Amino acid sequence: MLQWLPILEKVQPHHRRQVTKQDTGTFKPIILHGHERAITQIKYNTDGDLLLSCSKDPTPNIWYSITGERLGTFDGHNGAVWSIDINWDSTKVVTGAADNTARLWDPSNGKMLSAIETKTAVRSCSFSYSGKMVLYTTDKSLGKTCEINIIDLNQQLQNGHVVSGAAQSTILNIPVPTSKVSSAIWGPLDQSIITGHENGDIIQWDIRTGKKMLLVQEHKDVINDLQYSKDELMFITASKDHTAKLFDVSTMKPLKVYKTERPVNSGAISPIADHVIVAGGQEAMDVTTTSARQGKFDARFFHLIFEEEFGRIKDHFGPINSVAFHPDGKSYSSGGEDGYVRTHTFDPAYFEFDFEY
Amino acid sequence: MTNLRFLNILDLPPTGIEIKGNTKIVTEFKYNDEGKKIKVVRHYRIEKRKVSKAVAERKLWKKYGQARNDPPGPNPSNTIGGEEIFMQFLTNKEEDNKAEESGLAKLKGRGLVLCRICKEDHWTTQCPYKDKFSDLAELRPEVKTKKLDWLWMSATPSHNSQVEEKIKAGKYVPPSMRDGASRRGGESMTSSRTRDETATIRVTNLSEDVQDSDLQELFRPFGQISRIYLAKDKVTAQSKVSLSPIELTRFSLRWETKELNKEKDISSLIVQLKVADDLHHLLYNFFHKGIES
């Protein structure tokens, strides 16, 4: 994918024309109403048959993505759940919450397998590609510094409930005294991790040494979300500075910029088309002072390469906090501040739509 | 009443599930908020899909947690079929924009346009950081003083060196001694009211369904409109036939007072225009002394 990027860049913009047979596409979304508060993150599993959602209420949900049927809830947290992830074979789920725990769950029966107690709220958590390690980051609060932690999953499962500091399963602990980690993903081949920070920095850490490998300062404000492209060669950032940017994973160089007029909360890259969804909107705390029309709570579709917006879907009545493409690229879901998750299946007009160049 | 309703629920016909070919029809009876019996019919399409073994196995998992007691299939209280929504394609966006902002587009990219907030190449009003820095203190006074200078050109600001020293030292300076005390502008209610009136045109005898935008359109050729207040009836939310002041900040000097007093036609009603007396005077000075701004 990266190899043909530079070639297409040479195309002059004014030779481009967007071609579609219709001006609008029609979707009938499935609305998933399982949360009482704002959605914080949604994620599909590898096969795309399951959709996980977590919100500021303490019960993360798991759904069958095709029918929108709720499979179950993970009951046990006592605070807002900030992050959720499922491993590649859908046998474990990890959640990170503001009740100072990260918990591991069995998605087949909803039972909690293990809990890790932390000093502060867990902001983000994710399984490594192999599924053998779990990364979680904690907030900076109450005089405690922000930390990046990696644990060995198997050892953790043997330990059961573990109190902070005594975690034998911890492989790596990096205190981050500077700007707080606001989102984190694993780097290529589980050799590094990439963290987005509150001040807009993006840092790649070597997990063998725990040292910073690369630091990029491309954003001016909080990185709300980091998501991979399907081949995991690129990732997209979503920042409060009103932009989403596409980065090359290995060099951490910015490739593309998608500009909007509102804070961006989440960005996702289509696995089948050169499309990017950028979603966000007026911040929740500012919403009451403006009308919904001005909040711009749309999911915006950008062309991956041309950085040009070509479509918009308006359906949430609050800012969108998380978007995710189905792994087959034929549908996507969005979770909003309004507490709803909406699953949209693309109609033929979307697939017919193309740029002529 | 509530007790009655509980009894009634027992009287309702049971929920019927019927499968016709590849459609599942669920018929449910319930009471709406007014206590009337209603019938809810939901149609589900049954699809068979070929899936991988892992997916098929996962489909057989038993529901758990809060979904533990849900029947097979989507629970209508959690899974709602949404209304149709539309994806707007922004087709040929570039060409549309070209026609719209051809003049502005030319200025772009030449370094002529500089945002006052982020120093990038766009107009300040279009700055993406506008809302973030809207409280920038430097921006507003600048605008305000410009406006005031224009309106009160004769007013000279008094600079008292003693007062300035006091301000620098952080000492208390009574309002009457502060810079700008002699000027008629400022934050007080009275002065702002007078300022408003000087640059205000009152439009009377408006049609009831005149909108802000109509007035914008009508007066745009004459100058920059800073405020339109359309007097509206509290009950009907329609514009009153009476007063509707429009505040213009800058007028083009080519503007003839005669033309302004001409009667204009909005929505087949004759509209009466009147310029505030002070403004008349101000404009008169401009024309006769030949001052160019």
From TrEMBL, chain A:
PROSITE patterns with a match to the protein in the record: WD_REPEATS_2 (PS50082), WD_REPEATS_REGION (PS50294)
WD repeat residues: 32-73, 74-115, 216-257, 313-342
Pfam families named among the record's database cross-references: EIF3I
InterPro entries xref list: eIF3i, WD40/YVTN_repeat-like_dom_sf, WD40_repeat_dom_sf, WD40_rpt
Compartments (UniProt record): Cytoplasm
Predominant location category: cytoplasm
Keywords of this entry: Cytoplasm, Initiation factor, Protein biosynthesis, Repeat, WD repeat
HAMAP family in the record: eIF3i
Entry's family note: Belongs to the WD repeat STRAP family. Belongs to the eIF-3 subunit I family.
Record text on subunit structure and interactions: Component of the eukaryotic translation initiation factor 3 (eIF-3) complex.
Role this protein plays: Component of the eukaryotic translation initiation factor 3 (eIF-3) complex, which is involved in protein synthesis of a specialized repertoire of mRNAs and, together with other initiation factors, stimulates binding of mRNA and methionyl-tRNAi to the 40S ribosome. The eIF-3 complex specifically targets and initiates translation of a subset of mRNAs involved in cell proliferation.
Protein name: Eukaryotic translation initiation factor 3 subunit I
Native organism: Cordylochernes scorpioides
TrEMBL record, chain B:
Protein's name according to its UniProt entry: Eukaryotic translation initiation factor 3 subunit G
CDD domains given in the database record: eIF3G
Functional description taken from the UniProt entry: RNA-binding component of the eukaryotic translation initiation factor 3 (eIF-3) complex, which is involved in protein synthesis of a specialized repertoire of mRNAs and, together with other initiation factors, stimulates binding of mRNA and methionyl-tRNAi to the 40S ribosome. The eIF-3 complex specifically targets and initiates translation of a subset of mRNAs involved in cell proliferation. This subunit can bind 18S rRNA.
A Pfam family assignment: eIF3g
Originating species: Cordylochernes scorpioides
PANTHER family linked to this entry: EUKARYOTIC TRANSLATION INITIATION FACTOR 3 SUBUNIT G (PTHR10352)
InterPro entries assigned to the protein according to its UniProt record, in alphabetical order: eIF3_g (IPR017334), eIF3g_N (IPR024675), Nucleotide-bd_a/b_plait_sf (IPR012677), RBD_domain_sf (IPR035979), RRM_dom (IPR000504)
Main localisation: cytoplasm
KW RNA-binding (keyword) present: yes
Self-association state and partner proteins as the record states: Component of the eukaryotic translation initiation factor 3 (eIF-3) complex.
Family from the record: Belongs to the eIF-3 subunit G family.
Region of interest (Disordered), ranges: 169-198
Keywords: Cytoplasm, Initiation factor, Protein biosynthesis, RNA-binding
PROSITE patterns, per database record: RRM
Protein biosynthesis is among the record's keywords: yes
